[in-house]
Description:
The protein is an alpha+beta fold. The protein contains 1 helix and 7 strands; from the N terminus they run E-E-E-E-E-E-E-H.
Amino acid sequence: MKVNIKSVFGDHVNQEVDYVVVKYQDGEIAILKDHIPILLSIEEGYIRLQSEAEVLMCYILQGFLEFSNNTLTVAAYDISVSKTLEEAKEALLADKKVREKQAKEENV
């Protein structure tokens, strides 16, 4: 299946994967090829992208996920992608702190 993940800060993932696992506020769901169409809201959670070559973890804040015609599309406010969930979460929180600091400096 094809995966496109974007945030307001740019594109993050555009690749083919075997399946994905999504953790969001209502639980966890696995999406395989030919899954029925689905639309989810993600307040805070993660997406695990699984392929034969690698596993990527995407930590997400405030987004929407759509799966249709074997294409998974995610649009979110903020996303961080890494090899592990811990790394992705730490990177997102660090980037968020930097952006908040910059915004404060610009507003002064």
